[in-house]
Write a structure and sequence with these properties.
311 residues; four-stranded parallel beta sheet; 11 helices; binds phosphoric acid mono(formamide)ester
Length: 311
């Protein structure tokens, strides 16, 4: 029997690497309760009524930013939103100065997305608020991995012994690393698949298997988590053309229908339709992409609520 602990082992969520399997299970149990709350006619609870949260986004985001903001509002927190494009960062202010100025306004928690790997750790080392990493460069995106694993569990039950494939641009993906840590902590077997140029050379040292054969990988797995080709992070050309990528590594209906099993298809978004996944798969019954987004709010409510208890 799995024991559910009462408290997180940490006051920050900097990455899945730094939390325990017990932390993850506690977040999931709490998220289940919050999922019930957000499906009620009155979707709000007063849990964070005395808490002020700053959402600092130094990089673009649609899902994560809206999902955190909604989670905070559902918990009755006070919120301040910051985006780098309209701030004094443009005038040369340092990250620490920016954040210290915001904290002087009595902020308790900081949700931060930043292009530099380690930026949330830097903040946690210098300021007193709870820090939540909403994606730091190519490093980690812990709440995405939590909502992914939570959504997988809803579909296929306990992840121990289950086979999960992560497909696509592993090299430039923070979702991949956080997913690997999270799934392994929950006892799943993980395989990464993509062109050799988009898979880090020594990734097998993390205990994952590697394939460059999409069909073999799909036939092996229970769940395929398809990642976006991150063209904005690719400083050189990693494959000849998007058309060729779609032909050899894209998921389409014909490929899924040729398997002798049903698999669950996921994507963290945003999707490059027709590149890593075709619309007839993304919008099909195999896909749980929109359930992932719905679960994101409940999982982020759980993270905020549990970390607020560590203040
Ligand atoms: N999945 C994800 O992080 O999406 P956004 O970049 O839109 O937040």
């Amino acid at each position: 029997m799995t024991t559910i602990v009462q408290n997180l082992s940490t006051k920050h969520l900097l990455g899945i690497k730094y939390i325990t399997a017990a932390d993850i299970r506690l977040i999931f149990e709490t998220a289940k309760s919050f999922k019930e709350v957000i499906n009620r006619p009155i979707k709000k609870v007063p849990s964070l009524r005395d808490v002020t949260i700053a959402n600092l986004f130094f990089e673009n985001s649609t899902r994560t930013r809206i999902s955190f903001e909604l989670a905070e509002k559902r918990l009755s927190a006070d919120i301040v939103n910051f985006s780098a494009s309209s701030s004094s960062v443009k005038k040369g202010e340092t990250l620490l100065d920016t954040v210290n100025n915001i904290l002087s306004m009595k902020v308790d928690m900081v949700v931060m997305r930043h292009p530099a790997p380690g930026a949330p750790q830097f903040l946690a080392d210098h300021i007193d608020a709870n820090i939540i990493n909403a994606g730091d460069g190519t490093h980690e995106h812990p709440t995405q991995a939590l909502l992914d694993a939570f959504s997988m569990q809803e579909q296929i039950g306990d992840l121990a012994g289950k086979k999960i494939a992560i497909l696509g641009d592993i090299t430039h993906s923070r979702v991949a690393l956080s997913n690997i840590f999270c799934l392994q902590k929950l006892g799943a077997e993980v395989k990464v698949c993509g062109p050799p140029t988009l898979i880090p050379k020594h990734i097998n040292q993390l205990g994952v298997s590697v394939s460059h054969d999409i069909r073999e990988t799909l036939q092996w797995c229970d769940v395929a988590n398809v990642l976006r080709i991150q063209l904005e992070r690719q400083d050189i050309q990693y494959f000849p053309s998007l058309r060729e990528y779609a032909q050899y590594f894209g998921i389409n209906r014909k490929l899924l229908d040729s398997l002798n099993k049903e698999i669950v298809v996921m994507h963290p978004g945003p999707i490059n339709r027709g590149v890593e996944i075709t619309s007839d798969v993304a919008d099909s019954d195999h896909s749980i992409i929109l359930q992932q987004v719905e679960n994101g709010v409940a999982v982020r409510m759980a993270v905020l609520y549990l970390l607020a208890g560590k203040r």
